[in-house]
Design a protein that fits this description.
Bound molecules: NADPH dihydro-nicotinamide-adenine-dinucleotide phosphate, N-acetyl-L-glutamyl 5-phosphate
Distance between the termini: 34 Å
Structural class: alpha/beta
CATH architecture of the largest domain: 2-Layer Sandwich
Strand order of the largest sheet: 3-2-1-4-5-7-6
Number of domains: 2
Number of strands: 14
Number of helices: 12
Oligomer: single chain
Radius of gyration: 20 Å
Shape: globular
Length: 345
């Protein structure tokens, strides 16, 4: 199968290349760029010298339709809004890593992303690709909205207790941390070495664009969810997301009971690993892998629960999850080309 990557020169794009170039059902990856063409891909990424003989191609919709079966969009917000609709009359399957197709409410997208949204008929066709919750729909779609990095960790961390009503719906607080690669490859003052090194900084306080995405997904599991408290912090590491989640329990559950609930809930989800009692995952334990690791503990004194979910933002939070969806959309086994160990230490 031939696949295309738009935004191949970015962090999401090069992570897609790393995974897809080792995928047994991918014969060729064609790389597209909006700013460079006919130059070797390895000019952008010297670590691929001799491994990649690809060149960058111009984004030409009609050429892409002739040449690829699946197109990944690893592009900034706003690009998929223009590109995706142009493929709806073709057989090309679209997997969009940006936020453009994730929110079902057009007004909500425009409010949180502060830019125009794609038309409602396109939004209706898009399927939200969190495969642990939505596998059946993913296998049938040609237009896939790949979840955001923070939503992936947060929703997977909360889904069992929210769906089974083990927590009070209005009591959820999420304290999330991310590595700097979450901001993409372009340099900015916020991600400058001297701003991030030996520093932890909260950002987008109460205004993060992933808030409505998380609420939308949780509401699909339990309609009593209205809003959550959610904040993000930039920490001095390259990859990784940790979502530390707090909520009030609806009854006196033990940690053991809740761990059993999580193990049952994710019994058929090969990329979710539930930790043992009193064991909490760290970001390094999923680095470079498609795993989401989860630890939980009941605080008997306060009647609250602490849930910790970690992912690699570029793998389970972006390119790995996109390939997981690619597998499901094409009838391949979900783990194909993806079931590898994290890089450790
Ligand atoms: N980084 C992360 O951890 C995650 C990122 N995402 C989302 O994935 C998407 C890609 O992120 P990331 O790879 O980090 O970003 P980068 O900034 O690293 O890369 C984005 C790429 O998009 C291309 N691009 C820019 N403008 C256009 C345009 N107008 N048309 C086509 N291509 C364009 C650029 O390549 P060129 O100039 O060669 O065209 C650039 O290399 C974003 O929407 C991001 O929010 C989602 C989850 C996690
Ligand atoms: C460190 C950092 O800045 N991370 C970005 C990740 C956002 C992202 O990936 O954007 P979409 O999922 O909305 O496309 C942020 O927090 O906004």
């Amino acid at each position: 199968m031939k696949v295309g990557i738009v935004g191949a020169t970015g962090y999401g794009g090069v992570e897609l290349y790393r995974i897809l170039s080792n995928h047994p059902h991918v014969d060729e990856c064609i790389m597209y760029s909006s700013s460079e063409m006919d130059v070797p891909y390895s000019n952008s990424f010297p670590h691929l010298s001799d491994l990649s003989t690809h060149t960058l191609n111009k984004i030409d919709v009609e050429e892409i339709k002739k040449n690829v079966s699946v197109l990944f969009l690893a592009t900034p917000p706003g690009v998929s809004r223009i590109l995706s609709p142009q493929f709806l009359d073709s057989d090309v399957k679209i997997i969009d890593l940006s936020g453009d197709l994730r929110l079902k409410n057009k007004g909500e997208y425009e409010e949180w992303y502060k830019r125009p949204c794609v038309d409602e008929d396109v939004l209706e066709k898009a399927v939200y690709g969190l495969s642990e919750l939505n596998k059946a729909e993913i296998t049938k779609t040609n237009l896939l909205a790949n979840p955001g990095c923070f939503p992936t960790a947060t929703i997977l961390g909360l889904a069992p207790v929210v769906e089974k009503k083990f927590v009070h719906e209005q009591s959820i607080i999420v304290d999330a941390k991310t590595g700097v690669s979450g901001a993409g490859r372009n340099a900015s003052q916020a991600t400058h070495f001297s701003e991030t090194n030996e520093n932890i900084k909260i950002y987008k306080v109460h205004e993060h664009q992933h808030i409505p995405e998380i609420e939308q997904a949780l509401r699909s599991l339990n309609e009593a969810i209205t809003c959550i408290s959610f904040n993000t912090h930039l920490v001095p590491m390259t990859r990784g997301i940790m979502a530390t989640i707090y909520a009030s329990l609806t009854d006196t559950y033990s940690t053991e009971e809740i761990l059993d609930l999580y193990k049952d809930y994710y019994a058929n989800s090969p990329f979710v690993r539930i930790r043992k009692q009193n064991e909490f995952p760290s970001t390094k334990e999923v680095y470079g892998s498609n795993f989401c690791d989860i630890g939980v503990k009941v605080d008997e004194r306060t009647g609250r629960i602490t849930i910790v979910a970690v992912i690699d933002n570029l793998v389970k939070g972006a390119a790995g999850q996109a390939v997981q969806n690619f597998n499901l959309m094409n009838g391949f086994e979900e783990k194909t080309g993806l079931y590898f160990a994290p890089i450790y230490p």
